[in-house]
Amino acid sequence: MNEKLLIHQETELPDEFDIKDDKLFYRDIDLLKLAKDHGSPLRFTFLPAISRQIEMMKMYFQKAMERTNYQGNYSYYYCTKSSHFEHVLKKAIQSNIGIEISSAYDIALIRSLIKAGNIKPGTPIICNGYKTPEYQAGITSMIQQGYCSVMPIIDSKTELLYYIHELKSLSCIKIGVRLNLSFIAGYDRKSRFGLSPDDILSFYQHEISKNEKLELNTLHFFNERGMDNSEDYWLVLEEIVRFYSQLKRQNPDLKTLDIGGGMPFRSRINSDFDIQFLVNRIISTVQSICQEEGVMEPNIITEFGKYTVAEATATIFRVHEKKIADEMNWAIIDGSFITHLPDTWAIRQEYPVLPINNLNKDLKPFILGGLTCDSADYYPNCPENEFIMLPDTEAEQYIAFLHTGAYQEALSGFGGVNHCLIPSPKHITIDTDPYGDLEYAVFSEKQSSERLLNLLGYQ
Questions:
Q1: What is residue 105's predicted lDDT score, i.e. its pLDDT?
Q2: pLDDT above 90 covers what percent of the chain?
């Protein structure tokens, strides 16, 4: 049943939502009952949504490649920095994907998953980011182990020289190299990552091509503006594919273009962003330029983090109090945006926000305020949306922030001390059994005062 709610404007609910008895349901989950049973603030993760996102993206690329008779293949990688939790990675890798890591501690995480039997032999792992000595040692150790197909993405000359030195104890290393986008006219983001085109060509000619144990097979880039349908994005992509072609003509081993991440998630309940159109144009752009340049189309890799996990998680709050004023009404929640949704104030990230109950009442505009004494602890704080519409009632009110599954714990910290000692919320996971029935599990309880005192040295 497609229902409509007033949030900033009349909004038609997506298929995964329903309204029954004036309450909001998500995939047959009674959100009001969930909040009452477990308390609030509450974070819940619906794990099947992760698999769905991955399979949908694979379908988008498959359709785009079939439509154009594209000669390369597509590989989906999940970047762990979006959410490192075991339940997230276990669910993601069930969809036969690769993993992108970015620090030495990620290697311990991968080893734990291997030990538990959650990673299959041969699983591809891309190692991105700046490589500390500990990170480099971990990468070479995993290569020596041989269980996974591990490929470092070279970010600097010193890193390349490190692997050349380590070749004495290794049979062979396949590497990628990250392209710094500062060479592109009009690309105004200052980046410390990667190497210039001239450096890459020089390193290939003088270091890589002369070493039989070293194979450069992947060119990687990340457009920090994210993936979108702007003219700037297509101009950047064209420049990168032309450089790929130039490098390919010198290096026959080059077969893969890693186009990074930045695929949008639904930050608004009715996003009209056409992902299939975007993927179609990516594939047709790469193909047409390669044909102009006379080189074979590359295999395509993407590294999607936020897209993979954001829409699997929601955060529920209870309205603690409503403060009615002449200029604007405030609804004080029983949590904190700085603690529980830190990117709402740090980068003014938007999320879909829906009232959970009292949906038969008229709606009234409110600003949501957090429990801390910080003036920045409120939502929304972006010019496009100045308020949230909530039922006009004094009855107990719950609200849901949707699609909050990426980066929140990474930004605020998990299990640590938060601003104004606001405790971390309870977190539950929801999966389906082989019969399609919902299975609930408590991942972590609400942070206790005893735990906070212990962290602060009082106990």
A1: 92
A2: 65
Largest interatomic CA distance in the chain: 75
Separation CA 19–CA 30 (nearest Å): 10
SS3 232: helix
C-alpha dist (Å) from residue 92 to 40, 147, 233, 245, 311: 27, 19, 28, 32, 13
Rounded to 10 degrees, the C-alpha dihedral 243/248/251/252 comes to 170
Name 75's bridge partners.
Answer: 301
Q: Which residues contact 267 (CB under 8 A, 6 or more apart)?
A: 349, 350, 351, 352, 403
Do 438 and 432 meet the contact criterion of CB atoms below 8 Å apart? yes
Residues 150, 106 contacting (CB under 8 angstroms): no
What span, in angstroms and rounded, lies between the C-alpha atoms of 306 and 108? 22
Residue 413 main-chain phi, psi, to 5 deg: 90, 145
Question: Which amino acid is residue 364, in one-letter code?
Answer: K
What would the two tokens of residue 138 be?
């971990």
End-to-end CA distance of the chain: 53
* Helix ranges restricted to H, 377-459: 408-412, 449-455
* Amino acid at the residue 73: N
Q: Is 80 helix (H, G, I), strand (E, B) or coil?
A: helix
Q: What CA–CA distance (Å, rounded) separates 148 from 96?
A: 13
Identify the pLDDT of residue 189: 66
CB atoms < 10 A from the CB of 64, how many?
22
Grouping H, G, I as helix, E, B as strand and the rest as coil, residue 180 is coil
Alpha helices, DSSP H, located in 15-126: 31-38, 48-68, 86-93, 104-115
pLDDT at 11: 60
Q: How far is residue 204 CA from its own chain's centroid? A: 32
Instruction: Please give the angle made by the CA atoms of 33, 36 and 42, to the nearest 5 degrees.
Output: 100
- Helix axis angle for 48-68 and 275-293, nearest 10°, is 40
